[in-house]
Design goal:
364 residues, 11 strands, 8-stranded parallel beta barrel, alpha/beta, binds ligand 9MR, single chain, globular, two-stranded antiparallel ribbon, TIM Barrel
């Protein structure tokens, strides 16, 4: 009798865990979501079954929240936060400063006809951060404070209105202001390709410098926008080890695996754009062998993550299912399949492979 009960108990536990990502991961399970999630009840069951943390895809960005000086658009973020509260989901605020000129509303940098001074720019940044972090204090426990400040292709920081006026000080200040506005919030530095050799060293230099200034950085976001057959497992592992040594937590903040390689889009001064914008190989469905390869590569990624449960605090996907992925539109229009769930919200081979990896004790 007891044995039967025990078996049933374990069978039930295993079935439940093998079925739900948020039950199976040793870290928090998250997802970036369309800002209109509150209007889409058809997405709620999938969302709540697998994810505990939600990041609004666009509505909390500076360009959306304060498009011109003192003009605030907070209905979208308010609805998002209220929706999350009603479903008992935790919100990742994204993002307070996006250190790219095309992502920062131009007014931030201008003071009449001349460029804003460091003092003016920092005062504007403080006002923005105070408003956002203060408004959601107690309701948003995690913030992407600074996004994408590291330069691509070597060097150190990305050139932007922020660095031109403030050097690297704006990054430390952003963290100080966010911490002052909510001392309980977990504060993240978020970037892409920061696990790669080269950009990793730039990041470690930045983190050391922030630490020396006493800036309250609690975790690093590795966005994890990968491409099939080009997942940088080794570099990623080196980065996880380096961040463990630096005593920083890691969040994989925007995970996906594009099945249509896109790297060449940025090569050779953009001269391949015209040719590439015609590439749409899977418009009528993704071949099973591609989905199988993607599944294998996702599983290998999760196998690696599982070696670092003390480092990885959260893994968030960027979008709920293939039909909602930003990669259907960026950098050109195509039908893409980067996530664990298909356009009907059904589990793909990648989901099965990841769950198998997470629930098979021998693979750890
Ligand atoms: O997925 C987002 C897309 O809908 C927006 O048009 C774009 C510009 O705001 O940002 C995308 O999300 C980005 C995220 O905010 C930061 N990391 C890279 C993400 C993909 O570009």
């Amino acid at each position: 009798m007891l044995r039967t009960f025990t078996c049933l108990f374990f069978a039930a536990t295993a079935t439940f865990a093998a079925d739900s990502l948020r039950q199976a991961t040793p870290w928090a399970s998250g997802v970036g979501l369309s800002d209109r999630i509150a209007d889409h009840p058809e997405d709620w069951p999938l969302l709540m079954k697998h994810f505990a943390y939600v990041t609004p895809e666009n509505c909390m960005k500076p360009a959306a929240t304060q498009p011109s000086a003192g003009v605030w658009r907070l209905e979208g973020p308010d609805r998002f936060v209220e929706f999350a509260r009603s479903k008992d989901l935790k919100v990742v605020g994204h993002c307070l400063v996006w250190a790219k000129d095309d992502r920062t509303p131009a007014w931030f940098y201008q003071d009449g006809a001349k460029p804003a001074s460091k003092e003016v720019l920092l005062a504007r940044m403080k006002e923005h951060i105070d408003k956002m972090v203060g408004r959601y204090r107690g309701r948003i426990a995690t913030w992407d404070v600074v996004n994408e400040a590291l330069a691509d292709g070597g060097g150190y920081l990305r050139d932007s209105g922020w660095t031109r006026a403030c050097g690297e000080e704006f990054i430390a200040k952003a963290f100080e202001y966010a911490h002052a506005a909510d001392p309980d919030a977990l504060l993240i530095y978020n970037d892409y390709n920061n696990e790669l050799d080269g950009k990793r060293e730039q990041m470690l230099k930045l983190l050391a410098s922030l630490r020396a200034r006493g800036a309250p950085v609690h975790a690093v976001g590795l966005q994890g926008h990968y491409e099939i057959d080009r997942i940088p497992y080794e570099a990623l592992e080196k980065t996880l080890i380096a961040l463990r040594e630096a005593k920083l937590k890691v969040v994989v903040s925007e995970l996906d695996i594009d099945v249509i390689p896109r790297g060449r889009w940025w090569a050779d001064n953009g001269s391949h754009h015209e040719e590439m914008s015609k590439i749409n190989p899977y418009a009528n469905g993704c071949p099973p062998e591609i989905l199988a390869r993607q599944a294998e590569q996702y599983a290998k990624l999760f196998k690696l993550f599982q070696k670092y449960p003390d480092v990885i605090a959260r893994v968030s996907f960027w979008n709920l299912h293939d039909g909602q992925s930003w990669l259907n539109k960026f950098p050109w229009q195509r039908v893409n399949y980067p996530l664990l769930f298909d356009r009907q919200g059904q589990p793909k081979p990648a989901f099965t492979a990841v769950m198998k990896e997470l629930t098979t004790p021998t693979s750890k």
